[in-house]
Structure formats: C-alpha cells, structure tokens
Amino acid sequence: MVLSPAAPEPISADPPTSASAENPLLTQSWLDLAFVHWAVDPADVAPLLPAGTVPDLHDGVTYVGLVAFRMHRVGWFRLPGIPYLGTFPETNVRLYSVDAHGRRGVVFRSLDASRLIPVAVARGAFRLPYQWSRMSIRRSGDTVTYSSARRWPGPRGAYSRIAVRVGERVEEPTDFEHFLTARWGMHNTFFGRQMFLPNAHPRWPLHRADLIVCDEDLVAAAGLPRPVGDPVSVLYSPGVPVRFGRPARPGGIPTP
Fold first, then answer.
1. Is the pLDDT of residue 2 over 50?
2. pTM of the full structure
3. Per-residue pLDDT at 82
4. Which of 51, 69, 198, 254 could make an S-S bridge to 185, C-beta 3.0–4.6 Å?
5. Residue 73 has what pLDDT?
6. Which sign, positive or negative, has the C-alpha torsion 120, 32, 205, 167?
7. Strands 26-40 and 62-76, bridge-based pairing
8. CA pair distance 75, 78, nearest whole angstrom
9. pLDDT value of position 70
10. Secondary structure (H, E, C), the chain
11. What would the 3-class secondary structure string for 146-193 be?
12. Nearest C-alpha neighbor of 71 from the set 149, 125, 133
C-alpha cells in the first residue's frame, strides 16, 4: 500500500503526550530485558507489515529486534497485576513501523511466552502472534541467559538461547539507541482493520551488553532472512513499568 504520510514523529526518549495512558487499558512491567538488533533490508520487511504502515527507517535502514525479558504482573485497567498468570518469560521478534499519521511503532512477528492462558487470550482478543513455549531466564553474576523452545502453535520446536554480559550504564543513549528502544505504540490488524495501541513508560535505564551466546531460529521462523554476522546493537535494561492506552481508530482518534 502506498502511503502519503505525515512526517514521522520525532525520536524521543519520553512518550508523546498522546501516549500518556492516564486511564490505562493494561498495566505491566518489563524486566531484565536484552535488546539484540540486526539491520535488515526494508524490502524484506515491507510485505510483513500491516496495511497502512511502512518500515520505519533510521539513516535509510530498518531493523529486526530479538527482545527477551520477563513480563511482570500484567493487570487490566487499574486493577492490581496478576502474580502468576501475569508473570512469565517472553521473547519477541519485532519490526519497526510508521503509519500515515507519523506514529512510530513496533510490529510483532512473534511473541513466545511460557503461560498458555495469556497466550490464548492475546491470540484471541488482540490477534497477536503469541506462541506457547518452554522458557527460562537465569542470572549468574553479570550474565543473563534466556532460553525458549516453542510448543504451540508453531512452527513447533522454534527456539532461542541468548546470553548477555551486562556492562556499564549508558549515561547518554544515542538517537539510534532511542530509535530501537523508545517505541510508543504497536501497529496491528484487528479483524481486518488497522489498530494502533499506544504505550507509555519512564525512560529506559540502558546498559551496554556483550552477546556471548546467540543460538536461535525465531527470526527465520517469523518470515525474515536469517541474521548474518554480529548484531549492530546489544543492550540490556533492568526494566520499566508500562501502561497501555486505548487502541486508536484508523483515523488516529483513541477509543473512549
């Protein structure tokens, strides 16, 4: 689809006012995150994005992210987060998108999680490509290891094992590092209609990280070329609390 877009919103470490999510639809925390990114040809990404969006570019290049973390206490509206069903490891494969309103976002190609009920709810209610997987997160000193093996729906057996050594705090993240991590919404298709789900959270506390193990086929299973060579960026964050606002209509107006 050919867009005549507004200029993309500025890259920012802080959420735009429109993403403040003062009356949140969902609350949760994302903890112990590893962000691993490779450059990818925009021509390979464009067919995988929802209608109404195009690849978001930084200096003419777009990226695929493999992001592993611990979801913590997912809650609806202002209710307390759920301790067991709302807390689990997750690993997602994501792309970067921009729509005709200039809203920068992410598009999830897969989201592996270790709790079956949240996977089923997310697939049914939000049409998100969640996958039920056997997963673990282990920390030993300054090294964090994330493992997953897919159970359902598939491709069964798709896997990842990532280990990062956490380094020093990034005092002044670059514009590129904000581009990869500070994303203030999700683009998706819901019953054939474009949807944008805004989110807001404090600034990411980011650390440099060394990738000491990366054995995975989740990126290829998500329909993208298998990554070749070292990633262009590896970062770690202890995490942030997150609020999701109401989904925006195709015209860009949030639902009441």
1. no
2. 0.92
3. 64
4. 198
5. 84
6. negative
7. antiparallel
8. 7
9. 97
10. CCCCCCCCCCCCCCCCHHHCCCCCCEEEEEEEEEEEEEEECHHHHHHHCCCCEEECCECCEEEEEEEEEEEEEEEECCCCCCCCCCCEEEEEEEEEEEECCCCEEEEEEEEEECCHHHHHHHHHHHCCCEEEEEEEEEEECCEEEEEEEEEECCCCCCEEEEEEEEEEECCCCCHHHHHHHCCCEEEEEECCEEEEEEEECCCCCCEEEEEEEEEECHHHHCCCCCCCCCCCEEEEEEEEEEEECCCECCCCCECC
11. EEEEEEECCCCCCEEEEEEEEEEECCCCCHHHHHHHCCCEEEEEECCE
12. 133
Residue identified by tokens 């705090």 is: 169
Evaluate if residue 1 carries a pLDDT over 90: no
pLDDT in tens, 102-150: 999 999 999 999 999 989 988 988 889 999 999 999 999 999 999 999 9
Domains of the chain, earliest start first: 23-244 (2.40.400.10)
Separation of alpha carbons 203 and 197, rounded Å: 19
* Rounded-to-integer distance, Cα 3 and Cα 247, Å: 21
Torsional sign, CA 149, 154, 155, 156? positive
- Please give the angle made by the CA atoms of 71, 161 and 227, to the nearest 5 degrees: 105
| Residues comprising the chain, all counted | 256
pLDDT at 249 over 70: no
Q: Are 159 and 68 in contact (CB under 8 A)?
A: no
Residues 6+ away with beta carbon under 8 Å from 185: 19, 103, 104, 105, 106, 196, 197, 198, 199
Mean pLDDT estimate for the chain: 90
